[in-house]
Write a structure and sequence with these properties.
Layout (H helix, E strand, L loop, with lengths): L1 H8 L21 E7 L2 H10 L2 H20 L2 E4 L6 E4 L5 E8 L9 E10 L2 E3 L4 E3 L1 E2 L1 H5 L1 H18 L4 E4 L2 E4 L4 H6 L2 H4 L1
Antiparallel strand pairs: 1-5, 2-3, 2-8, 4-5, 6-7, 9-10
Length: about 190
């Protein structure tokens, strides 16, 4: 619910109240925005057909990748002179899927993408408490997770009968001319 989300933004427990993590500084980092972007051809096909299977395949690929990211979650351990990170394997996030990008000259281009806002919190079961997340390794490994996402999305779309083809920078659905992809990539060209 919206109110629950606001509580989490304020580092509060939505159901029971009180602080979620031990420290609640005024300038604390609320969370991190993990982004997932479909290739332009996928966005164009979705815009033209409104086929819900495309968005479902996209969301499944995002979900699978977020689960893999979550498995790498850690918390800092600073008690009793310790200075290490401990694997927690859990994160708290919300997913927001958008079908268009920001408008250029008042008109948005098709752009299927998701924001997964990950709260700066993870549950440390050894200390039995919520703590700030240590996401440095996840950020370092972002290119790997991006590859995981794109491999999952391409596989799911191929399972729907859509052919993919490699490009110099990744992949696109087969049958789209480069000029068409560029025509609907106005924010990139800006």
């Amino acid at each position: 619910e919206r109110g629950d989300w606001q509580h989490l933004c304020d580092n509060e427990r939505p159901i029971t109240g009180g602080s979620l993590t031990a420290r609640s500084r005024g300038q604390r980092r609320v969370g991190y925005d993990f982004n997932f972007h479909a290739p332009k051809s996928v966005s164009l096909l979705m815009g033209a057909t409104q086929d819900p299977r495309i968005v479902e395949a996209f969301r499944q690929a995002v979900g699978e990748t977020m689960k893999e990211i979550e498995a790498d979650a850690k918390a800092r351990v600073r008690r009793s002179g310790q200075n290490e990170d401990r694997a927690t394997g859990n994160l708290l996030w919300g997913e927001y899927v958008h079908l268009t990008g920001r408008p250029v000259d008042g008109i948005p281009d098709p752009h299927l993408h998701a924001h997964c806002f990950v709260f700066n919190a993870t549950f440390d079961s050894k200390e039995s408490r919520w703590k700030a997340a240590q996401l440095g390794d996840i950020k370092r490994d972002a290119p790997y997770f991006e590859a995981v996402f794109h491999a999952a999305l391409a596989r799911k779309l191929e399972d729907l009968g859509l052919k993919t083809q490699r490009t110099a920078t990744g992949w696109e659905l087969a049958g789209f001319e480069k000029a068409t992809l560029q025509r609907f990539s106005r924010r990139t060209s800006q």
